[in-house]
Amino acid sequence: MEALILTCSTGGGHNAAAYAAAEGLSLRGHRVNVMDPYTLVGERLAKTVGGTYVRMVQISPRMFGIVYKIGDAYRRLPIKSPVYAINGRLAKRLDTYFKEHHTDVVLCTHIFPAEMLTYMKNNGMQTPKTVFIATDYTCVPFTEETSCDYYAVPSGDLNDEYIRRGIPEEKIVKSGIPVRKAFQDGPDRAEARKILGLDPKSEYIILSGGSIGAGKLRSAVRVLEPLLEPEDKRLIVLCGSNSGLYESFCEKFGADGRITLLKSTSDMPDYVRAADIFVGKPGGLSSTECAAAGIPTVFISPIPGCETHNCRFFTGRGMALAVREIRKELIPAIRKLEAPGAADKMRAQQAKYVSGRAAEEIAKLCESII
Question: Residue 342 burial by CB count (10 A; 0-12/13-18/19+): exposed, middle or buried?
């Protein structure tokens, strides 16, 4: 089978889901190409689209929240959105691509390419079979104006929301969000620490701003720093693509052996499996990766919009804790997870609601429709 996965670099989660889905297909013997469709126009456009989102979230998460609310309000109107019209401009480029490259199935881990494919269908262009892969625990704005053959959703608990938004029930498949196999089947904690050169006896807390280094990481470091020395705790800080944040932390903590500073890393599965507690914003992918790995999780500073829904989904099912005021609530949340039996109880809930086999399930779905 020849599969094409279309993604968009508005945050790393969509790309992470794309490559996880590609891994699932490849392991079953299929050929896969992962592509940002904006590169059909040029790399500059692809970087501009992704970079605009990243800068907005890094500088003003509240502004993104306003944009999300506008999109949520627009979906009530009986007309197609500007998002559909703008992405429709790439339809001819995709049409040419499909004529030149045999493709059996197209998977979309972002709403933008799903809009492009819908525009193609609505204007008489032929497309392969299409699967939309949701990467958040909600039906994001404009999903209802797409027309994919199937919608792979994170949980059956979301079916009613998708149906209410106009997605036919027979098109909805409860697959889970695809994550790399290593998050669930990677080395155990001791082996992961050995691979990464971490102290086997210390307790490790991961503090993550996601792929873009967003969220109130500076505040969180100030709160967590006093815990490190007296309790033999260590801190791993993931700054992602936020080079300014990384450089700032290096100046202040570069010589502090208790704190490990990282930019983007391909070793994230090992770091997650090596850690005792994860602290970070509730991105759809990072939340799912932690649940697949079975690491107790504390959410801070969600980006308004999808991450608010992700936070509510996880905390409502006992898969994570959330704090509003980092200074007052973060340490008590960590203490709560350190109480006897608390971490094991959270892991049990994570295993109940999140499957690390979503990539395999999506691959099987593709096989069944070809």
Answer: middle
